[in-house]
Every structure is written in C-alpha cells, then in structure tokens.
Amino acid sequence: PFIDYPPETARTASDLVLSGRKRQFPSCKIILSHAGGTLPYIADRVSVLSATIFAGILDDEHSPRGAEQVMEDLKSFYFDLALGGSSTVLDLLANWAPPNHILYGSDFPFAGGAADYFDAALESYPMNDQIKRECYQGNAQDLFSRLRLHD
After folding, report:
1. What are all long-range contacts of 70-74, with beta carbons under 8 Å and residues at least 24 apart?
2. Of 73, 133, 138, 150, which one has the fewest beta carbons inside 10 Å?
3. Closest C-alpha among 80, 75, 73 to residue 32
C-alpha cells in the first residue's frame, strides 16, 4: 500500500479542485502529505486535460474555468515534506509550489527509520537558511497563526 499513497493524494487533491470544492471553500486550508504525492509531477496534465478534453464535465458553478484556474487551485494546497525530503522531490516541489506552502513533516513515529533517512536528506538539501527556517517553522506558524511563537 505504501506505493498507493502518493497517487491517491494527487487524485484526492485533483478531485477537490475539479469538483469545485476547493474554490467553493477558499478559506479551508488543506495540507497534502508526502509533498503532495504525485500532484506536482502531474499538475500540468491535470490542468491542461481538464481545461480541454474534459472541460464539458466541469459544470459545477464553483469548478475552475481554464487551465490557469485549475493550476492556481492545485497550488493553493499546502505540502508537508513527510517522506518527501529527497533531492528529486524537493527539486520538483521547490520549482512548482509557492515557497510559503511548503511545510516540514516527518511521519514520525509511523515511518520509523525511513523518516530519519528523509530528514537527513532534507537537512543536507542545498537551500538558503531563510527558506529552511520558513519550511521548518515559519510557514506553519503563518498557517496556524495562533501557534506563532513570540520573541
């Protein structure tokens, strides 16, 4: 089942966008686990195909109109880095997702030693200190403002 989680995450996120639920409830913030699963990888496919070949089935009043709105809605999710700290995943996510939507996540204690592997990969990933601080703490504090630490 571990190989099923990433595409299921992408499927669920795509369904929330294409059904219009994400646009209908814009203040509902959703964090996708595992760097959004396969969503960053297939986002262009989802946005372009839904706006061309499948445009006729997006008939809900809240459904996004056009590939740009679909992509905007896909990027409105937040993405935790649980089991997603590899350089391949981080390169893709960092080039696709808004930087303030990337959050640290570990899947501890469920992932066991795998969490340690991905944490080490994330720690060694070349990113500037400000972005790393935001990823590890600042973005989550902005998302959950009532939890913000006061200096």
Report:
1. 70/17, 70/18, 70/46, 71/43, 71/44, 71/47, 73/17, 73/22, 73/23, 74/13, 74/14, 74/17, 74/39, 74/43, 74/46, 74/47
2. 150
3. 80
Q: Could you tell me what percent of the chain has a pLDDT over 90?
A: 68
How many whole angstroms separate alpha carbon 87 and alpha carbon 126? 9
At a CB cut-off of 8 Å and minimum separation 6, what does 91 contact?
A: none
Please give the full DSSP string across 78-92, using - where no structure is assigned: EEE-TT--SHHHHHH
Using the structure block, give the residue that is written with the tokens 């989802």: 46
pLDDT in tens, 40-72: 999 999 999 988 877 766 667 777 788 999 999
Strands 31-32 and 102-103: unpaired
pLDDT (0 to 100) of residue 150? 64
- The whole model's pTM is what? 0.90
C-alpha span between 64 and 8 (Å, rounded): 21
